[in-house]
């Protein structure tokens, strides 16, 4: 087992492409995940165990959002746990590529944890609104449901686009124009849709009105991204039709 520095260098050489990745994931989450992956490698953890560690941090934070009255202390604790959970979510894939121990079971487990996260984060906000929110009107309870819809449909549609594209490539069908180079403008534009940026809103839990406003703005942004992504992916898949 090599030194931590050696492991980090190997992990840097095994990074996924930066195409379609926001600046936060590229310069914050992936480097943090790289450090955690090196630590997990030194500790002898498997990629699936790292995925479960990610789930533990994330789901514990979401349970706290639903069950504990909002405060600045809760805000800091929840954000720290969510950010760590997201970094471990990056670390499991990096560890899998480093060790060659990735497989369909690991990919499946990772997606299951991610899907559960997207469902639970907005459910936790809904419960918190109902229990502690002192909302201006009951209509605010619909906001987390709409945000959840946008997040889950984007996640599922993106996965389907990826797998249908791979299936088309495996069948020898043309997959469209060559991949565009990594774009910094695109990386900046994707920031509002990045889960790591979304987690920042929980730092406002100590000020319920500010949290509601920030959460509402992000919900609108994610709805707009959903419309843009669905249009883009539909056109790409339509272009894959044989003949």
Protein traits:
single chain, 243 residues, mainly alpha
Task: Explain this structure.
With 243 residues, this protein is mainly alpha-helical. Helix content is 74%, strand content 0%. It has nine helices and no strands. The chain has helices at 4-12, 23-43, 47-67, 72-99, 104-132, 142-170, 184-189, 195-199, 208-238. It is globular and about 55 Å long. 29% of the residues are buried. The model has no long low-confidence stretch (mean pLDDT 88).
Topology:
Layout: H1 4-12, H2 23-43, H3 47-67, H4 72-99, H5 104-132, H6 142-170, H7 184-189, H8 195-199, H9 208-238
Helix pairs in contact: 1-2, 2-4, 3-4, 3-5, 5-6, 6-9
Family: Belongs to the CDP-alcohol phosphatidyltransferase class-I family.
Transmembrane segments: 74-91, 139-160, 187-207, 213-234
InterPro entries: CDP-OH_P_trans (IPR000462), CDP-OH_PTrfase_TM_dom (IPR043130), CDP_ALCOHOL_P_TRANSF_CS (IPR048254)
Number of E-state strands: 0
Average of pLDDT: 88
Runs in which pLDDT lies below 50 for 5 or more consecutive residues are none
Percentage of residues assigned to helices = over 70%
Query: Can you summarize the main beta sheet?
Result: none
Which sequence of SSEs, written as H and E, runs from N to C? HHHHHHHHH
Secondary-structure-based class equals mainly alpha
How would the global form be characterised?
globular
The separation of the N and C termini measures: 52 Å
Strand content: under 5%
> How many individual helices?
9
Gyration radius (Cα, Å) is 19 Å
Pfam families: CDP-OH_P_transf
Organism: Streptomyces stephensoniae
Keywords: Membrane, Transferase, Transmembrane, Transmembrane helix
Transmembrane segments: 74-91, 139-160, 187-207, 213-234
